[in-house]
């Protein structure tokens, strides 16, 4: 079968019948008019033995009076666009070829999604699949309910578009598009009467007929109508304002979850309207945006006096999650997206869909209307540097930080408007592509999130900082946590911790090669776990080079040369230990190197106290420990001000009270130490220890060191029982000279992770508190300890493990890496840690 009937013989003659694959859109004035043409179509199909289905959106009785023989399927658009579109797709796939469909009015979807853009996306995502299945589907499009842009998208996608008018109680049909058919009278108006369709070709008759019909006025996007009504509600009653706030909450935030509850408790109608005024597209704004907005609202409302004049305002823009869907649909990739959600990804099921999307997304094209919106965004920021940040629906939520899994891209934002627009679009594409990156997919798989609606919204922020010479960067940037999960001095109260760098905050969230961030206990900013601060200070700075229009890394001396002396004094000071050594060596005249310790900011400018108060206020409102990203600059009056750019719940393991640690037995004790661990109170039996021997690792070339990291990943995937991983220097570093360059997914099966010193190779643990690596350890509940075996309070006896049989060497004696990676079975070995006592013991 290749042809079918409309049920109206005259109409069949005009359009040369329906063809299998046709999507038939009827523009109508009322549901009753649509029923008048749908009923003969359904009646004829049933008479011919066709399978006919009515797809209801659950908001009205079916439009057809007689549904005998018609299967009615109710689908819920309030579940969200993606679950709804997938449910429709699944139903169509189940029915298979040659199904006949009648569908509820598309305007009914407005109530669920508050977006005409998404109505167009639904049609454009669904109709190609209907076409592939050789179906015929009738869609009613209620006139003057949709914007020109939506009607244009539907016209472009559908095979048949028919205009239906009721004039003087008579029905007239005028074909507007009939794919691959044509006749001399096809596109004239036709009177439908008694199964006949009479062409009206006379200009006089046509003019007389349609003169009374007013030309339609373009309808505003449904979302704009919602916003206009919310602005009007500001002058209305309290109940009207609350109703408007709830509608905006539903669209921008979502209705469920702990973050939605926080937004409902802290965001006012005017706050949501401010977001709406800077929203590109429609849809939700995502977790990262919500965290930033809620945190600022909490501080402005609860601590107005404490924080007055100390917090930078923001003028961020938001790209709604619907734009991500639009990008996929307009480039023809929606089927790839649904395939990766339904099993066609690299984590489970048929591989290919996610990898293909990851390659395709950076080359996608944006619709013209979106490019115009992007240009207006750039006009707002002028040539100020901006950062394009992921803000997915699940990101920065309770339990799911997605730290470092999705992309953020700095734009120096220089050059001509066309060049700036091209760079901005590239940045958005990079963020979109990261939604299906391997690490993000693995993260979602590990947490059972693959099936959830995870669209990508975007937060566009002005980069906080100032121009120094041609270099743009903040005086300080960092991350801070309200709860000190890693304590090196048991006498310090828990007032939170911070990880600080000068320059862009990228060096605060990454494990940055041979560089070091400043770790600060906010209870005592002078305290540091690093020992010799001069040795472990920051030496390079991430900046935006505006003349070159790029982000780059410069030596600390280059940054110092362009920063005003008064500002630099807040960041750095002469290294007292180095000065003392120079005097002892009889070279007092030599220039004393500096240490980047932020003492002037933390103490003199009161930033440590400010951070303590900010963290305490946010943790109280969240009723949960929090993690923030921030920058510090000086305002025109010289006051140090905080710019809060991100806030999220910090997923912690409860530390509880003291559990007690057994006294160490030297002959059975592998490790005994005070402090320098993270992971709460633990009492864990350890079935296996995987140990990278530092001497053997040091002897390897760089390629073999990467091979060690990959082999650790293989072991990680095959672990059985409870295992810990021990190695020299930093796990997860990007530089094999500093440790083993594993990805987190290559060690996430271990219950404990130990970093050890090895002076011959300059391997040394790095407290990466606040980094993305740290976030992953905390979320995964992996115990962490830094073993400084050169300290008097540390007992460390590797031979108790390394003298045990190496299971890898037994399994594969010819494996060259078996001499580097020692795998020992350790029945009855126990790991004990007590936060109150700040003691950790690993012994039999």
Automatic annotation (TrEMBL):
The coiled-coil regions, if any, are: none
InterPro entries, per database record: ATP_grasp_subdomain_1, PPDK_AMP/ATP-bd
Question: What's one Pfam family here?
Answer: PPDK_N
Top-level taxonomic group: Bacteria
Q: Provide the Pyruvate phosphate dikinase AMP/ATP-binding domain boundaries.
A: 284-653
- A single MF term (Gene Ontology): kinase activity
Q: Which Gene3D superfamilies match?
A: ATP-grasp fold, A domain (3.30.1490.20)
Q: Which SUPFAM superfamilies does the record match to this protein?
A: Glutathione synthetase ATP-binding domain-like (SSF56059)
- The identity of this protein, by name, is Pyruvate phosphate dikinase AMP/ATP-binding domain-containing protein
Taxonomic placement: Bacteria, Bacillati, Actinomycetota, Actinomycetes, Propionibacteriales
């Amino acid at each position: 079968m290749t042809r079918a009937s409309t049920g109206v013989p005259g109409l069949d003659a005009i359009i040369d019948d329906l063809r299998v694959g046709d999507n038939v859109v009827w523009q109508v004035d009322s549901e009753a008019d649509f029923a008048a043409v749908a009923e003969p179509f359904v009646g004829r199909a049933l008479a011919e033995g066709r399978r006919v289905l009515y797809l209801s959106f659950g908001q009205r009785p079916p439009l057809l009076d007689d549904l005998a023989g018609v299967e009615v399927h109710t689908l819920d658009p309030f579940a969200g666009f993606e679950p709804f579109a997938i449910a429709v797709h699944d139903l169509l796939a189940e029915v298979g070829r040659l199904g006949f469909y009648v569908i509820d009015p598309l305007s009914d979807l407005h109530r669920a999604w508050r977006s005409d853009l998404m109505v167009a996306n639904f049609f454009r995502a669904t109709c190609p699949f209907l076409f592939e299945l050789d179906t015929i589907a009738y869609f009613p499009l209620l006139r003057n309910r949709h914007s020109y842009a939506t009607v244009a998208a539907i016209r472009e996608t559908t095979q048949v578009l028919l205009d239906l008018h009721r004039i003087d109680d008579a029905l007239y049909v005028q074909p507007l598009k009939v794919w691959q058919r044509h006749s001399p009278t096809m596109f004239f108006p036709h009177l439908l009467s008694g199964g006949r369709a009479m062409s009206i070709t006379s200009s006089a008759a046509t003019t007389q007929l349609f003169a009374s019909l007013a030309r339609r006025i373009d309808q505003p996007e449904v979302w704009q109508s919602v916003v206009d009504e919310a602005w009007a509600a500001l002058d209305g009653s309290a109940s009207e304002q609350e109703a408007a706030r709830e509608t905006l909450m539903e669209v921008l935030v979502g209705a469920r979850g702990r973050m939605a509850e926080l937004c409902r408790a802290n965001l006012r109608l005017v706050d949501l309207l401010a977001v709406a005024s800077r929203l590109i597209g429609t849809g939700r704004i995502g977790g990262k945006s919500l965290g930033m907005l809620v945190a600022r609202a909490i501080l402005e409302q609860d601590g107005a006096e404490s924080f007055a004049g100390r917090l930078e305002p923001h003028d961020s823009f938001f790209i709604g999650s619907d734009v991500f869907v639009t990008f996929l649909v307009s480039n023809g990739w929606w089927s790839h997206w649904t395939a990766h959600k339904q099993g066609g990804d690299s984590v489970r099921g048929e591989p290919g869909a996610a990898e293909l999307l990851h390659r395709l997304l950076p080359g996608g094209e944006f619709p013209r209307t979106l490019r115009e919106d992007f240009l207006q965004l750039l006009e707002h920021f002028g040539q100020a540097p901006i950062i394009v940040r992921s803000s997915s629906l699940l990101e920065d939520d309770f339990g799911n930080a997605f730290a470092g899994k999705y992309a953020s891209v700095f734009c120096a934002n220089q050059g001509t408007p066309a060049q700036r627009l091209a760079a901005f679009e590239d940045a958005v594409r990079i963020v979109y592509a990261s939604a299906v990156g391997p690490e993000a997919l693995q993260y979602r798989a590990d947490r059972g999130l693959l099936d959830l609606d995870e669209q990508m919204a975007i937060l566009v922020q002005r980069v906080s900082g100032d121009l120094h010479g041609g270099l743009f960067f903040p005086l300080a940037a960092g991350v801070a946590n309200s709860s000190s999960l890693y304590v090196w001095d048991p006498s310090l109260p828990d007032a939170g911790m911070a990880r600080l760098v000068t320059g862009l905050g990228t060096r605060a969230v990454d494990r940055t090669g041979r560089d070091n961030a400043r770790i600060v206990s906010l209870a005592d900013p002078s305290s540091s776990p690093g020992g010799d601060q001069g040795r472990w200070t920051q030496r390079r700075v991430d900046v935006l080079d505006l003349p070159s229009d790029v982000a780059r890394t410069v030596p600390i001396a280059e940054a110092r040369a362009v920063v005003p002396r008064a500002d630099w004094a807040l960041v750095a000071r002469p290294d007292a230990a180095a000065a003392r050594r120079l005097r002892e060596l009889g070279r007092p005249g030599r220039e004393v190197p500096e240490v980047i310790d932020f003492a002037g900011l933390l103490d003199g400018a009161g930033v440590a106290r400010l951070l303590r108060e900010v963290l305490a206020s946010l943790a109280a409102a969240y009723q949960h420990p929090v993690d923030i990203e921030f920058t510090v600059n000086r305002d025109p009056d010289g006051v140090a001000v905080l710019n809060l750019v991100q806030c999220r719940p910090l997923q912690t393991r409860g530390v509880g009270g003291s559990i007690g640690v057994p006294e160490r037995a030297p002959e059975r004790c592998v490790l005994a130490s005070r402090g320098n661990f993270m992971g709460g109170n633990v009492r864990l039996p350890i079935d296996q220890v995987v140990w990278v021997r530092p001497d053997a690792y040091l002897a390897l070339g760089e390629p073999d060191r990467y091979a060690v990291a990959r082999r650790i990943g293989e072991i990680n995937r095959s672990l059985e029982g409870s295992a810990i991983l021990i190695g020299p220097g930093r796990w997860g570093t990007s530089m094999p000279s500093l440790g083993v360059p594993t990805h987190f997914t290559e060690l996430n099966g271990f219950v404990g992770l130990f970093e050890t010193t090895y002076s011959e190779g300059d391997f040394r643990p790095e407290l990466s508190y606040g980094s993305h690596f740290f976030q992953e350890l905390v979320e995964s509940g992996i115990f962490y300890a830094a073993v400084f075996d050169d300290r008097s309070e540390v007992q460390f006896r590797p031979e108790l493990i390394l003298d045990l049989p190496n299971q890898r060497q037994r399994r594969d004696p010819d494996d060259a890496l078996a001499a580097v990676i020692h795998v020992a079975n350790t029945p009855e070995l126990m790991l004990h840690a007590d936060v109150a006592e700040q003691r950790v013991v690993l012994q039999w």
